[in-house]
């Protein structure tokens, strides 16, 4: 039997709130968490490269290093969608959980 999402109505400002429960198997959750951690680490590194690169631009002797850090940060921004796409394909290869969503 398929369970429909519960629709709660907030009559004071006419907003519908929908509650939806998704069931994931253990493998899907593990894969999702691993890619989430990789994505967070990538985002932190992007921030570090751009912050240090920005500081380097205050000093003319470090401008070349700052430029390279911007290039590295920009390359890592391209890694973001690759991580998401890889996670998507990894999850597609896993067996689907039994039962309806």
UniProtKB/TrEMBL annotation:
Superkingdom assignment: Bacteria
A Pfam match: YrhK
Ranges that cross the membrane: 37-60, 66-83
YrhK domain ranges (all copies): 33-88
Alphabetically ordered keywords of this record: Membrane, Transmembrane, Transmembrane helix
Record InterPro entries: YrhK_domain
Record protein name field: YrhK domain-containing protein
Organism of origin: Kushneria marisflavi
């Amino acid at each position: 039997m398929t369970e429909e999402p519960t629709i709660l109505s907030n009559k004071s400002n006419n907003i519908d709130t929908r509650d939806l429960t998704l069931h994931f198997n253990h493998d899907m959750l593990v894969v999702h968490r691993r890619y989430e951690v990789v994505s967070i680490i990538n985002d932190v590194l992007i921030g570090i490269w751009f912050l240090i690169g920005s500081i380097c631009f205050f000093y003319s002797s470090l401008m070349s290093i700052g430029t390279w850090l911007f290039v590295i940060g920009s390359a890592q921004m391209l890694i973001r969608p690759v991580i998401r796409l890889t996670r998507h394909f990894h999850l597609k290869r896993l067996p689907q959980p039994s039962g309806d969503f």
